[in-house]
Write the structure tokens for this entry.
Amino acid sequence: MFIFRRKANSIDYFMKKLALHWKIIIGLVLGIIWALISSQLGWSQFTIDWIAPFGKIFINLLKLIAVPLVLFSIISGVANLGDPASLGRMGGKTLLAYLITTVLAVGMGLFLVNLIGPGKLVDEQSRIDNRIGYEIWAANEGYVIKDGINYLQDPEFMDRAKEISDLSRSELQDASVNDKMATADATKDAGPLQPLVDIVPDNFFNSLADNSLMLQVIFFGLFFGVSMLFIDPKKSAPVTRAVDGIMEVFLKMVDLTMQAAPFFVFALLAGVVSQMAGNDIGKVVEIFKGLSWYSLTVVLGLALMIFGIYPLIFKIFVRKVSYFGFFRAMGPAQTLAFSTSSSAATLPVTMECVEDNLGVDKKVTSFVLPIGATVNMDGTCLYQAVAVVFLAQLHMIDLTIGQQLTIVLTATLASIGSAAVPSAGLVMLIIVLESVGLNPAWIGIIFPVDRILDMCRTVVNVTGDATVSSVIAKGEGLFNYNPNKEPDAAFDIDEEK
């Protein structure tokens, strides 16, 4: 008994000391193992009934936090830019440069995911089953089928739908008819500028209540924050402090939710895999086949940004720094970004690399880099674009160019409200999925590979910050690069910060 207690105490001590991301990885691995075992033994329904609901709770918590977090983060980020008159030329250049690199990243992601089509490389029967599940979900949740196609109207697919769901034939027919009526009502009066009209809300509180109207919330946050810049700072200061305080509360809610993430991730992965695979273990293999192609697409896009787009920008606008000189200068910051998955935690090292190794004046770094750590999320936006289209492909949904442009716009604007901490991109992905009417619970499909991709995309975020700050410094005559100076290899950084 004493030996047993001692072993239990040792395990408890080990788990307390283990970093959260390792606990999450353990949780997702156990969830996948459980799904495989339950699929093999025919226990998938038990998993769906008794384990999957905790994954649903996890999604609900993230959705609960996501909208207000984005709103207050955007207001805080814009309002804290300072008096618009004092921002001057540097502020305008900075925001424009970050916007351009973000749009380039999202465009790169959409190009690659459409070119490679990772979701289309999965077994067709699995994709058909996924599509049927999507149509049933859309009907139950009141969403309009995005591509206007309804598989449930085909008797062959309706028979399959009866096999993979608890719905009767009449209920499936009702879902099919309701979807067609909703599609017709939504499109018959739409004009060419309707997407622009839809961005501006007539009732902000309705926008808060409907997750599919996230662009309206983002518009309000930007409008509110910009308006604060044009009033007396004495009057806006209390509002700014209140917004900052509320934002910190929501960030703490994210932190508390993520502390329980290992258990929730176990339930989420076990439930998602069981629902998609049923008692057919072969479908589990197909899911992870698709994930491997998805991961390769994201990594390829991130690599092209780091080793192609940013050096090209340097070559055009800065010129003084050689290709390998840039990576020698930024190596310590990129390494720390990969290990911490946090632009904010890496910020002190990024500032030292940019100032000491690239020769950017402190006047530029102290202004441009903190803004970049908040609003410049190139890697996150690229990953979101790839993830949304991949999940649509996996469910046989053909997103139009207009819907993909909505992804670009939503991912770009939501990046302003994306906290510079690990897993924040996952919260923002829920916003992007809902903006195009897709099921936010699908994040469970890509969760197994999210951690390593989070590490990779943070490197892109930090590299983008350094690139933009160098371009701004060169334009302002504050760039003093010394190619003969050896880059600092290490920095005295407190990892607690």
